[in-house]
Structure formats: C-alpha cells, structure tokens
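Quick one, probably user error.
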C-alpha cells in the first residue's frame, strides 16, 4: 500500500482561512480519488486531542495522522532551516510552502516532496502579505528551488512571475483550485436573508483595505453608482478602517454594508443575490472569488491582473488596472455601470460565468496531483 502524506496542519489555523479551505477541499478530493493501492495520511503539528479529532471528522477516509512533536510555530521554524527529515519518508504533498524540505535522493529512496506556491507576492507585493513575513516565504521558496521534486502553482501567471525569481525548470505544474462543494444556497435562505438585511439590489465585493485589494478605488467608484456596496470579510488593514475610507472617498455611508466574515451558507446566499460581483484586486495568484461568483451566475467585473484574467477567460468584464487610484476608480465605475445598465451584457456574463466555473473542480485538481506524484 502506498501512502500519500499531506501537510494538513493549516486546516485549523484561523489566521489562514483561505489556505485552510484550500487544504481541506484538496485533501478531501485526494482521499476520494485515491488509486486502489493508495491511501492518504495527514501530517500535523503537536496539537490538543480535540484538534486531532476535528481533523479526522472533517476528513473522513483519512488513513491516519502523523503527529509532530513540535507545535505549529516551532515546526514552521524548524522546517524553514531544514532541521528535519521527511515524516516516515515516502510521498509528501504540501498544499503550501510549509513542508519538510531537505536533500534527498529520490531515485535511491523513493522519497518525494511536492510543495504549492500560491502567488509571487513575497517579491511583487511584500508589504501586502499578512500572516508569515515575506522573508519566510522567500526563504521557503529558495528551499523549494533546491529540494522540492515538483511545485504546484494555481495559474500560468504565477508560474511566469515565479520564473523571474526562482529557477524550477520543468518541475512546475499548473493545477488550479475550485469552488468548495460546501458553498451552496441553504434551504433556509429566506430566514437568512431577513437576518442579513440585504437590500434588494447591491454590488458585492470580498475586498479589504489592503492596498493590493483596491477597496478604496472601488469605494470611490461606487460613490458614483446609485447601488449599495456589500463588503464581505474584515475590511481593516493596519490602522486603516472602513469608516475612514468611506469618509475619504465620499461614498454615502448608508450605501456601504459591511457583513464581516460569513459562513458558507450565508456567503453562498450573498453571492446568489448580488447584481454584480467586483474583484478589483491589483494582483492575485488565482481567482477563487470570481469563480465562486461565476458558480452562482453572478456577473463579474474584474481587474485585468494576469491571474484573474486567466481564470476568468471571457466570462468577466475586465477593467484595466492603474496605479493611480482616481484613474482606476473611474474605470471601475464605468465597468460596474456597463454591467448594471445593460441587461444583455449581464445575462451574457452570467451564462459565461456559470460555464467557466465548471472548468474547475476539486476532483480534477486531485487527479492531477496524483498523476504528478506518479510522474516523478
């Protein structure tokens, strides 16, 4: 029996919600698509017993857990400096850069480690990275350059950007993510809608005040659009607050609705009711939020950031980015109005988006991961 060991430590880390969801969805799919002679095991840091049980509950079919003696922070530091051996050897798949990378002879031992690099932000936008520092990411990417047997990236755009900073040769494989299967409109939609107090018509975004996410230009743009803007997620960034941004950009305060973090059921409901979804980010590694909106048939206005444009293909109305917030705001305003005021455009984008969302699935991603491990 062959065991694929997946680093699932991030699933229960509240500071990395996006990575946690990616790791959980991919691991579930790897379990579901495992060849008949293969099983999936999880690698985790030293954690309380209730966290181990929660991981096993979330990942039915997991063959077991390899439990490190080190806590999460210590394990990350140790792995960064290479003070480790591969847990039990064999095949290791890391859904992030957190991986036990070390020198090894794959031909001699059969050991292999594949890591995932979700973006090139450590070099292109280091000041906009939250969580672990840009330095940690750069260090781990350099270790991956030396020791990883293969590298998964979500888009060709990320592959191209990384090639400017690290030489992975032919070890890079593009494998995108997908919409979580748990993101569905709930049966109690009417009750949830009443609790959320959403307006009948609104524009939706998941952006925060991180400058890369371009929420300020979007707020300025929406000041000239007579439709409320609904914001999902924590919009704050450092000392900047939504209240300050609203005051600075001139949008009427009553037209800005901040919902904070939502569970899957509420998020699905909000996506499904939005007139337009705006993804104004100046740089991303993937376009998951756009894909989520596509899945609900919601027309998408997106920046032309390379990864976002790649994921959207022809299913979104693309807006040219600008480093000048005022210029970018005007372009966003025109893009939103173009979709809001033209029913034919909105319908075309809705149909194209629904089709585009089906081009990405977790089953397909997992099968590609299994094939990658087989190929090396």
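Nope, works fine. Designed sequence:
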């Amino acid at each position: 029996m062959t065991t694929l060991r997946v680093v699932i430590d991030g699933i229960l880390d509240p500071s990395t919600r996006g990575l946690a969801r990616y790791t959980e969805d991919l691991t579930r799919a790897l379990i579901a698509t495992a060849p008949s002679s293969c099983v999936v095991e999880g690698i985790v840091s030293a954690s309380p017993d209730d966290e181990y049980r929660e991981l096993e509950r979330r990942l039915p079919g997991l063959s077991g857990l390899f439990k490190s003696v080190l806590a999460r922070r210590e394990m990350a530091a140790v792995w960064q400096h290479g003070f480790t051996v591969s847990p039990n050897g064999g095949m290791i798949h890391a859904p992030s850069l957190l991986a036990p990378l070390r020198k090894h002879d794959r031909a001699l031992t059969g050991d292999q480690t594949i890591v995932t690099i979700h973006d090139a932000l450590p070099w292109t936008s280091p000041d906009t990275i939250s969580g672990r520092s840009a330095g940690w990411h750069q260090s781990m990417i350099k270790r991956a350059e030396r020791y990883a047997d293969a590298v998964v990236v979500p888009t060709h755009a990320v592959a191209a950007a990384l090639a400017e900073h690290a030489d992975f040769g032919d070890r890079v494989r593009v494998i995108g993510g997908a919409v979580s299967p748990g993101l569905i409109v709930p049966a109690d939609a009417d009750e949830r809608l009443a609790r959320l107090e959403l307006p009948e018509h609104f524009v939706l975004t998941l952006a925060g005040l991180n400058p890369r996410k371009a929420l300020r230009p979007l707020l300025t743009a929406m000041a000239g659009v007579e439709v409320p803007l609904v914001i999902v997620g924590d919009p704050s960034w450092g000392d900047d607050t939504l209240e300050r941004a609203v005051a600075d950009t001139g949008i009427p305060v009553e037209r800005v609705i901040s919902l904070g973090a939502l569970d899957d059921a509420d998020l699905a409901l909000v996506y499904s009711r939005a007139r337009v979804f705006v993804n104004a980010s100046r740089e991303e590694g993937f376009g998951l939020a756009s894909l989520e909106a596509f899945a609900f048939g919601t027309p998408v206005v997106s920046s032309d950031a390379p990864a976002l444009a790649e994921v959207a293909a022809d299913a979104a109305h693309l807006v040219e980015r600008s480093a000048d917030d005022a210029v970018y705001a005007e372009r966003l305003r025109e893009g939103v109005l173009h979709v809001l005021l033209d029913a034919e455009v909105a319908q075309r984008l809705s149909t194209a988006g629904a089709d585009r969302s089906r081009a990405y699935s977790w089953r397909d991603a997992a099968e590609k991961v299994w094939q990658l491990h087989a190929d090396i």
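The domain at 2-178+361-375 is CATH 3.40.50.2000 (Rossmann fold).
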